[in-house]
Amino acid sequence: MTTPHAIQTDPDSALSLYQVYLELLDAVASLLLADASAEGLQEVLAEIGQRCNASVCVLYQHCSPSEEAELVAAKAAWVTESLLPRYNELQVLRHLRYDSFPDLADPLHAGMVARTPLSTLPQLASAYQILGDSQLMLIPLLPRGELYGFVALVRPTQLPWHKIEINILCAVVNDLALALDRDHTAQDLAVNQQRLQALVGATEDIVVECDLQGRVLNLWSDHPQYQKLDYRRLMLEAVLPAGIANPLRDLLPHLLRHKGSRVLRCIDNGSYPPSHYNVRLQAVPDAGGLQHNLVALIRDVTPLVQEEQRWQTMLQTLDLLDEAVLELTASGILRHASTAWARLRGTPEEWIGDDYGYPLSRWVHPQDHAELARALNQLSHGERKQTELRFRLLHPSEPLLWVEARLLAQRPHPSAPLEVHGVLRDVTTAYQNERRIMQMALYDALTELPNRLLLDDRLHEAIHYAKRHKCKVALGFIDLDHFKLINDSLGHKAGDEVLVSLAQRLKAVLREEDTLARWGGDEFVVLLPALTDLSTLAAISERLREVARQGVTVDGLETKPSISIGMAVFPDDADSAQGLLSLADHTLFHAKASGRNNVQFYRDIADRQALDRNHVVLQGWFADAVQKRDLQVFYQPVVDVASGQITSFEALARWYDDQLGWVSPSVFIPLAEKTGLIRELGEVVLDTVLQRLVQWRQRGILQPVAINVARAQLFTAGFVAMLQDKVAQHQLQPADLIIEITESTALADVSRQTHFLNQLESSGFIIALDDFGTGYSSLSQLHEMPVNVLKIDPSFTAKLHTERGRRIVQAVVQMGHALGLRIIAEGVEDEATLRQLVTLGVAHIQGHWFSEAVPAGLVDSLLSQPLRLDLV
């Protein structure tokens, strides 16, 4: 016999293996035809187990009504002879629950074979100790297309399953499923015959026979009310409730005269709630055949009527909702709708029926037809059970409505055609809010031009396109000359008007595919993608300069601003987005140094000493260090003064270069912000901190770590979701991180920032407001922000020796305590400062007096040396 192991080392033996399993299929078929009892099943399982070199073979079936699977019978399991002495120790395999093995249950319910090493199932640890390094394979029993149970096979891991084995084992198990279903069906037939015999005469229905005068001749019922009733020759009114007897009395002459039948609904108001009956009346000849009597079959349908009333109430409740409930065919034809559909359509409710029979796409904007058709196609072909989508709904009098549709495919019963049920709700307001949020995130609020984030995306896209199509990309920094003079002389409002006017004029002379973005302050950036040659670049630059010279009238005064432009070209001058930004920025510096109101190209000044090559080189080295993650993270402790214990750490980026040595953060942090690398730098720090936190938690170090988040990071789409995912991937909690943002960042756009901060807070992250006191926070703004910690800026800590400095810190501390915030004073350099802070109510400090920022390896020594201070 060819073993499964042999097939792995000798592919030519596949035919032999195929023959072995065909013999298995034949043997099992013979056994099942002969006997499907428990003993027969035992022989089948033994045949399967021995043929495929398994150590255990077990047949499971559902235990209705629970979701548990158990053995069909006590002997429906087989183990190899070597395991018989320990058979009782394998009782853990006797009962299995689907919810304990979701990774296996899902494929089984989908009709698929499920496989996994036994070592991955902690619930079967005791079986693993007996069976050793084995693999578990589950083959579903699907006699009628639904999961009936499964066959479980355990085999040593060194004998991997071959496709031939699995295919034929599936065929064997299919025969087994058919035999079980056949046996089960036979048992059901026998049980149903017994039930039918037991139910004859035991129905809850009442059958009454009466004559033309309304006298009761016969009554059949097992209801206790009629068991002891001597109904012979009693009138209908004496036997049945008035709500039934009176209608029967009225119909007697007509039915007996015409020898017909009738079905009616009767109500007995003598009980509460009223009882409802379906009554079927039939005229039948009496025993002599001379006249006809009336036979009434009376059935209590009160529960059905009450259920119908409840459903009617539910339907009426649905009509009160703003969401429209639709019933569609698989192709999208409208069959039924709740009254909210009329409100969405802007038509009277009584017109709803006029819409039936038409496709839903009839009322959908033409540009959204393809998406709707794709969703319906996925549902009709079984690719998805449910789906969600948004589309625009046509409205007779209002602008387009945005609706969110949730569609579900289902069949009322297996042989019925597929139906699609959906819920539609008006999300126009939410859609407009999302658009506004997107506008706020990617566009400058003053000029409505793209901001740095959107410019960065378009720049990378333009460079990618240029690489594929062998073309060029030009990028220019534009600076408004002497803008400070305009602000100082005419005011900031006038300065804003000048910036808006300049933005509109510059954009007007650009191509549709070009991008004009606001970099910040009085700086703009122009991006010119897909340039086939540079012959027009000088002309475009001059048009930009000339259009800026047109006069702008502000408060009756005309000003004629000028601009300086610095241009660089990809790939001639730089081979990356960061390099292009850096060179264009330095070229602008040269343009301003050359007298302003002019255009300079990097290719014209590349050989001049005026360009600060060292700065360019530094930018390149730093970009390379970020890309290679050659940065370090040091940790500065935050200390609880009362206990002397370290309560948290702040993560600080450090850069050591082989040629430059240690580069100060005051140099490379602004460099990162200027070149757009601040997000990548933040990601490096975040990943390093999360890895370090995992190590610390394993060693029992529980202090959280604060990371600084720049504005560019906070405003990046999906930042909060990314943060949640990374924390979850490292099996940490959000509270393990303290998210520090500067006060200036928080004040840049309070409503917008509060939205992101609320997301962070609801996710469980701790939020700290850094450099507090350097901005212009009002108490109301601070109260609205979901902030947990205030960090007093070192510039205020350093001025505690002055009366003014002490009062400022005291005010900050009192305000923070009033809002229930934790206060941390930064920049504590000596004991005198520490004592003053403690006097003012500061409970947590951070500074060189206790410890400067140290590498992660020195954290243990810091934790072992608590702060000792005699405060008496």
Automatic annotation (TrEMBL):
Q: Which InterPro entries match?
A: Biofilm_reg_signaling, EAL_dom, EAL_sf, GAF, GAF-like_dom_sf, GGDEF_dom, Nucleotide_cyclase, PAS
One function term, GO molecular function aspect = catalytic activity
PROSITE patterns reported for this sequence: EAL (PS50883), GGDEF (PS50887)
A single Pfam family, by name?
GAF
Q: What are the GGDEF domain coordinates in residue numbering?
A: 471-604
- All copies of domain EAL, residue ranges: 615-867
Could you tell me which PANTHER family the record lists for this protein? Answer: BIOFILM ARCHITECTURE MAINTENANCE PROTEIN MBAA, DIGUANYLATE CYCLASE DGCP
* Protein name in UniProt: EAL domain-containing protein
Organism, as annotated = Leeia aquatica
